[in-house]
Amino acid sequence: MTRIYLDHAATSPMAEEVIEVYTAEMKEVFGNPSSIHQTGRKARKKVDDARTILAKSIGAHETEITITSGGTEADNYAVFGTAYARKNEGKHIITTQIEHHAVLHACEQLEKDGFEVTYLPVDKNGLISINDLKNSLREDTILVSVMYANNEVGVIQPIVEIGELLKDHPAYFHTDAVQAYGSLSIDVITSHIDLLSVSSHKINGPKGIGFLYQRKGILLKPIFYGGQQERKKRAGTENVPAIVAFAKAVQLKQATFTNGNVEYNQLKQVFLSELERLKVPFQVNGSQESVLPHVLNISIPNTDVETFLVQLDLAGIDASSGSACTAGSIDPSHVLVAMYGESTPELRNSVRFSFGLNNTEEQVLEAANKISKIVL
Amino acid sequence: MIYLDNSATTKVHPEVLNTFVAVNEKFWANPASIHTFGHQTNELLQSAREQIADILKTSNEKIFFTSGGTESNNLAIFGLAHKYKQRGKHVLISEIEHPSIIETAKKLSEIGFDVEWIPVNSEGIIILDTLEKLVRKDTILVSVMHVNNETGAIQPIEELSKIVRAQSRALIHMDAVQSFGKIPVDFKILDIDAITISSHKIHGLKGSGLLALKKFVEIEPILYGGGQESGIRSGTTSVPLAVATAKAIRLAVTDLQNNILKLQTLSDDLMVYLNTFPSVKVISPAKKAPHIVTFSVQKVKGEVMINALQEQDIIVSTSSACSSRQTKTSHVLKAMHISDDYIKGVLRVSLSTLNNQQEIDQFKIVFKRVMNVIKGD
């Protein structure tokens, strides 16, 4: 049985071209970019070129890109880095209840250290209210961190409006774009974004690599100390092959940008229509207008997520209860709790399907049919 | 090209590369996912962890995969200091540590820890008598590298742990980035509590490494999020990288005694040759790792030698890659009180088992030529 992988928001397969580039770089360009000899300089050039590609993909300058070990480090760096660099200006941070744990747990850690954090609520559609944000802003607010799009339900936050609101406020605007990057067109200039996190393995690039965009002039406290790599912002020998492979994944995404979006959204629509045709009862969680093309979170009445996922697994379908990071635990999703409250059936019967590379219409039709057999 | 800068980074071993490619092809799932694909991927991750734990002689749950040596060192210093701060605030660090330890320790002292520095003698080896005086009842952490990356000097870790154990409850962290795979490293023989390993220094992949703890030693995280790696290192674990790291580690310890002999033979031969030049001073001490030979040419800048050798396709470095782009003098050489005539002319030849006698012979020929042109020797 060929498995049907519908969990691309957890992690995605590396594209063939990316594997080729990665493998070739590991074989050929193995220098340490800090070395001053030719082997080192060759590696440095590779990193520089890759950085330019990453920067351009969000309308930034290459000096504004700090390469990290992934989305978690980028988020931690943005949150801790801002907090400790600006603690003399203020100790108030605003974020949302539906952030990834890389932001939420970093904020909770800061609370233990004397910072004050406001966690903005979301409505039933998973959207924050600009008014709430406006009312929460204070003179001593140093950071506002709102994710670009949520990883569990795919809902896209009003980033442009937030940027507009914050452009005259001293607080830095950070957005975790891990799930949005590659699916949405992002421009840090027009959106007035100061800090933005990206992860490679969600866009068919290698695991263990990502970046944080930091608008020019922003000075964060590093979280890793050591050598003077990444303009003294991030110590540690650069992971050259992964950086180059990451840039390749970005280029591939850009080449198929509208294509991929349309394609994955098309798969989602086919999947939804088939479920409807088969009379599977379900309700989509989160906004259906402001949503990522490749993420779908549905609640199916009278199912239990744990059992349902096992059944799906036996039927050869890889899906998830929300995020892979929380999948190991039986705690209800903090995102769904924020949307629906503490005790609604959605917390126990919601499943996320996320579409991506190598998925076909036949696969999603087959998945829908298998689901109907399980549910009906 | 003759690559003699293996302490900066190494070429990926073909078998490690194959492992990476194969795992990446078949087991690219997120190991935290609960579907079978995720489980299978996670099982592979756990077996990588087991293999490493066996080699280092600790338990599986004490192996934490990180993004490399720098992160592991940061995690060790911050994480152990914070975990055990109720016992005291005193931390001891040697003067010749890698910047990823030194800068982290400086940061600790900014936030209220009492950091003191263990000095080294002219051979670049920590002074145990001074250490004995520095260790206090409230010392909570001692961090000393196994092999110095700039000189190859082996530090007396076993003696150090005896002194530390006798006088305190401090934990001992050892940066083994330069020693692992070059001399024996494990928790039992050294009696330490934490070990840092970086993959790309042992023919593994960049962007991967680990921190290993002895059984029952605990630590606070420095990255927060999804709670991977038992909550100690959040972020999706790259299983292909972890398995490739395990492979590189296995390869590094396979045939270790023979490899040591091979490297020793090559470096002894090189040292004997270098000593025939009156203006060359060997800086590596007698008690050194077999793969590093550090020396200096009197009154000639290191960069000049590097470029001259490079024109003949031989790659060596000044004392370290991390510092080679800085103009300031190496903190290690300063701590050793290397004289002005020599401190700017330091060169490091670092070998790997992929090097051979022919390459060393070629190095000698080229070196002699270069010395002729530059020094008229």
TrEMBL record, chain A:
PROSITE patterns for this protein: AA_TRANSFER_CLASS_5 (PS00595)
Entry keyword set: Iron, Iron-sulfur, Metal-binding, Pyridoxal phosphate, Transferase
EC class (word): transferase
Required cofactor names: pyridoxal 5'-phosphate
InterPro entries named in the record: Aminotrans_V_dom, Aminotrans_V_PyrdxlP_BS, Cysteine_dSase, PyrdxlP-dep_Trfase, PyrdxlP-dep_Trfase_major, PyrdxlP-dep_Trfase_small
Domain Aminotransferase class V, first and last residues per copy: 4-364
One Pfam family here: Aminotran_5
MF-aspect GO terms: cysteine desulfurase activity; iron-sulfur cluster binding; metal ion binding
Enzyme Commission number: 2.8.1.7
Cited Gene3D superfamilies: 1.10.260.50, Aspartate Aminotransferase, domain 1, Type I PLP-dependent aspartate aminotransferase-like (Major domain)
Keyword Iron attached: yes
Keyword field contains Iron-sulfur: yes
UniProt catalytic activity: (sulfur carrier)-H + L-cysteine = (sulfur carrier)-SH + L-alanine
Similarity comment: family membership: Belongs to the class-V pyridoxal-phosphate-dependent aminotransferase family. NifS/IscS subfamily.
Protein name per UniProt: cysteine desulfurase
Organism: Psychrobacillus psychrotolerans
Lineage, highest ranks first: Bacteria, Bacillati, Bacillota, Bacilli, Bacillales
From TrEMBL, chain B:
UniProtKB keywords: Iron, Iron-sulfur, Metal-binding, Pyridoxal phosphate
GO molecular function: cysteine desulfurase activity; iron-sulfur cluster binding; metal ion binding
InterPro entries according to UniProt: Aminotrans_V_dom, Aminotrans_V_PyrdxlP_BS, Cysteine_dSase, PyrdxlP-dep_Trfase, PyrdxlP-dep_Trfase_major, PyrdxlP-dep_Trfase_small
Cofactor(s) listed in the protein's UniProt record: pyridoxal 5'-phosphate
Top-level taxon of the source organism: Bacteria
Aminotransferase class V domain boundaries: 2-363
Family indicated by similarity: Belongs to the class-V pyridoxal-phosphate-dependent aminotransferase family. NifS/IscS subfamily.
Protein name per the record: Cysteine desulfurase
Annotated organism of origin: Psychrobacillus psychrotolerans
